[in-house]
Amino acid sequence: MKRISLEFPDEFLKWPDDMRIKGFVDDVRVTVDGVRYRISFYDVDRVRYEAAQCEVGPCYFVRNLVIVPEVTEQCMVEAVEHLFRDGQPPDCLPAPDLGA
């Protein structure tokens, strides 16, 4: 079994209901068997909103973006466990040095 941990940003820890309503949380630090990632989680409504705001170009890009049904701790943990169950997802890039 893989060792997985998620470290949520302070904003999410202080106001989880607000973040759920906003539909996104960036900079979740995920560690899987010692390899660290920075992952953004968006719900479908937030993706639609961001796509509609593409006035500066033809696309919207977020590296290591995971779309979840709802931006809650439970949904994010379940998504990470699912994605990393069989190894590193091919499009998920490990983070450079995350510092302290």
What does this structure look like?
This protein is of the alpha+beta class. Helix content is 32%, strand content 26%. The protein has a four-stranded mixed sheet with strand order 1-2-3-4. A hairpin with a 2-residue loop joins β2 (24-32) and β3 (35-43).
Task: Indicate the proportion of strand residues.
Answer: 25-35%
How large, in whole angstroms, is the Cα Rg?
14 Å
Uncertain runs are none
Order of helices and strands: EHHEEHEH
The outline comes out as: globular
Q: Strand count, sense and closure of the main sheet?
A: 4 strands, mixed
Roughly what percent helix? 25-40%
Strand order, largest beta sheet: 1-2-3-4
Number of helical elements: 4
- Structural class by secondary-structure content: alpha+beta
> What's the N-to-C terminus distance?
26 Å
Averaging pLDDT over every residue, what do you get? 86
Give the beta-strand count.
4
* Quaternary structure: single chain
- Domain tally: 1
Main attributes?
100 residues; alpha+beta; four-stranded mixed sheet; 4 helices; 4 strands; globular
Architecture blueprint of SSEs:
Elements: E1 4-7, H1 10-14, H2 16-22, E2 24-32, E3 35-43, H3 44-52, E4 65-68, H4 73-83
Please give a quick description of this structure.
The chain has helices at 10-14, 16-22, 44-52, 73-83; strands at 4-7, 24-32, 35-43, 65-68. The protein is α+β, with helices and mostly antiparallel strands and 100 residues long.
